[in-house]
Design a protein that fits this description.
Length: 278
């Protein structure tokens, strides 16, 4: 019997396949863990934006979680889009009893700017889910919303990261600098004691639909395999950077990251080439 590690994503959907549940499952597959999914909201979206959202009833969310946890216990769990406080409470009740590593991606908006979480639920995220998290992975606007700190340099990044760990109770935080300017895309991991930065060259592309989902899913998969947090983030950063470097020019808007990009490492990168469809 092979040692099968499983990972669970609890999130919203993206029928166009670039973000949300679909991105998470593709990433789990690429990182070689058995992927499972519990859906919070059905989102009609594509590369141009969000067209409509349909939330699943909380009782049905609870039933999906029961289906998983009564049968296949995941080694690691990630959450993405969770629209309401009731849903957060329901998920927190299950995670409280679980020993799995828990990666919380505090998804608030789609890249198009469309809100994916009720504004009144942000505090609920802090009170119900952040204290349970092995790792929280906010981008800069999400970290600003969570902490109320304006983030525009390394010092404010560090202050916000410390607040998320020391005051809100996460074990660790990975504050992603993808939204900042500069030649490098740098992220800061704070584990309550030390900061480690993970840096990659910024890729000049608008095709970044699903970067945050893909990154947190890759980290979740690596934790499911038993890697340390530092190692999981290192592998996740390499994975997402390749997925952005080889992102796909699909659709009419911001194309998706390429979940099998790392397999194309041996292909010489030519500026025009990585926008081709293959
Ligand atoms: N143009 C880019 N080139 C390289 N890395 C990027 C680029 N944009 C974002 N990243 C990286 O992608 C990962 C996801 O970050 P980000 O895009 O900030 O998340 P989100 O999707 O939650 O907004 C981070 O490691 C970030 O540094
Ligand atoms: C269901 C869902 N969850 C999350 C995102 C954010 O995606 P990104 O990874 O581009 O920030 C999204 N567009 N849709």
């Amino acid at each position: 019997m092979p040692d099968v590690r499983s990972a669970l994503t609890i999130a919203g959907t993206d029928p166009s396949g670039g973000a949300g549940i679909q991105a998470d499952l593709k990433t789990f597959q690429e990182r070689e863990v058995y992927g499972m999914s519990v859906i919070t909201s059905l989102v009609a979206q594509n590369t141009t934006g969000v067209q409509a959202i349909h939330h699943v009833p909380v009782t049905f969310l609870e039933q999906q979680l029961e289906s998983i946890f009564s049968d296949i216990i995941p080694a690691a769990v990630k959450t993405g889009m969770i629209a309401s406080e009731e849903m957060m409470q329901c998920i927190a009740a299950v995670l409280h009893k679980s020993k799995a590593a828990y990666i919380m991606d505090p998804v608030m908006y789609a890249k198009s700017g469309h809100a994916l979480m009720g504004e009144d639920s942000r505090d609920a995220l802090k009170s119900h889910l952040v204290p349970l998290a092995t790792l929280v992975t906010p981008n800069v606007p999400e970290a600003e919303e969570l902490t109320g700190i304006r983030i525009d340099d390394e010092s404010s990044i560090k202050t916000a990261a410390k607040r998320i760990v020391r005051e809100y109770g996460a074990k660790a935080v990975l504050l992603k600098g993808g939204h900042m300017e500069g030649a490098f895309a740098a992220d800061w991991l704070y584990d309550g004691e030390n900061f480690t930065s993970f840096t990659a060259e910024r890729v000049q592309t608008k095709h970044t639909h699903g970067t945050g989902c893909t990154y947190s899913a890759a980290i979740t998969a690596e934790l499911a395999k038993g890697r340390s947090l530092q190692q999981a983030v290192k592998v996740g950063k390499e994975f997402v950077t390749d997925a952005i470097r080889y992102s796909l020019q699909l659709g009419k808007g911001n194309g998706p990251t390429n979940h099998w990009g790392y397999r194309l490492k041996s292909v010489p990168v030519q500026e025009e080439q990585h926008h081709e469809v293959y």
